[in-house]
């Protein structure tokens, strides 16, 4: 099994994992998955733990949210497998402590980190599309469907926090070009769909960081 690292800028993920490791039933599930590397169904896990299926499913949902357990399909069978036996948690103590003070903002920060991870992975691969789907987010950064839904909701609801990263990428591209550049050319250069480029350029213009002349974007020194 692969090793896994929870970076310091994802305190909520670290918090969830620490909570999981303090739960007797969840430790029992992890033990069962370690002993069965090919995976177990929810019914098999419920039977091993001696609990009802809904209880087992609730624990499994928490484990999936930590990122250390995922679902795999074998025909019509849905199994749960452990992703890593070795886990490193980097704890940013001020951020971690702040979780108890403002959990909602911590959750938004966590989603923002994952949304940016998706963005950067796409632009280094096949490009950021206009329409961001739950399926593509889940596949690209390896999260479960529920988490992917939350990430897509975050991008749609807090688009300014997502587009801000696109703005920075465009500014870097304009500085490298040392002159005006067409929106279509920027889109191709940074591997981001024109839809997001146009939104980001509009923001840069409103902040007086760039000027738009026709389809040409000029950096304002």
**End-to-end Cα distance:** 50 Å
Based on secondary structure, the structural category is alpha+beta
* Low-confidence spans: none
- The number of distinct helices, counting runs of at least 4 residues, comes to 11
Kindly report the average pLDDT value: 87
How many structural domains can be distinguished in the coordinates? 3
CATH architecture of the largest domain: Orthogonal Bundle
Characterize the overall form.
Answer: elongated
Report the biggest beta sheet as strand number plus sense, adding barrel if it closes: 3 strands, antiparallel
Q: Report the sheet-strand fraction.
A: 15-25%
Count every beta strand, where a strand is a DSSP E run of 2 or more residues: 8
Along the chain, the helix and strand elements come as EHHEHHEEEHHHHHEHHEE
Question: So what's the CATH class of the largest domain?
Answer: Mainly Alpha
Account of the protein in words:
This protein is of the alpha+beta class and 221 residues long. The chain has 3 domains: 2-88, Winged helix-like DNA-binding domain superfamily/Winged helix DNA-binding domain (Arc Repressor Mutant, subunit A), CATH 1.10.10; 102-157; 161-219, Arc Repressor Mutant, subunit A (Orthogonal Bundle). It is 60% helix and 16% strand. The protein contains 11 helices and 8 strands. A hairpin with a 2-residue loop joins β7 (210-213) and β8 (216-219). α3 crosses α4 (53-66).
């Amino acid at each position: 099994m692969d090793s896994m690292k929870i970076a310091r800028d994802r305190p909520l993920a670290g918090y969830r994992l620490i909570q999981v490791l303090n739960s007797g039933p969840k430790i029992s599930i992890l033990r069962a998955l370690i002993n069965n590397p090919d995976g177990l169904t929810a019914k098999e896990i419920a039977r091993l733990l001696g609990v009802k299926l809904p209880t087992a499913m609730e624990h499994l949902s928490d484990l999936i949210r930590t990122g250390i357990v995922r679902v795999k399909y074998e025909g019509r069978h849905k199994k749960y497998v452990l992703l890593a036996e070795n886990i490193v948690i980097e704890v940013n103590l001020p951020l971690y402590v702040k979780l108890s003070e403002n959990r909602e903002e911590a959750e938004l920060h966590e989603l923002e980190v994952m949304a940016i991870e998706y963005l950067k992975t796409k632009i280094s691969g096949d490009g950021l599309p206009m329409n961001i789907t739950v399926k593509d987010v889940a596949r690209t950064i390896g999260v479960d469907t529920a988490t992917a839904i939350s990430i897509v909701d975050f991008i749609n609801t807090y688009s300014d926090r997502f587009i801000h990263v696109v703005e920075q990428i465009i500014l870097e591209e304009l500085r490298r070009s040392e002159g005006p550049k067409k929106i279509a050319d920027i889109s191709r250069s940074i591997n981001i769909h024109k839809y997001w480029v146009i939104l980001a350029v509009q923001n840069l213009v409103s902040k007086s960081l760039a000027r738009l002349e026709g389809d040409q974007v000029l950096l304002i020194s």
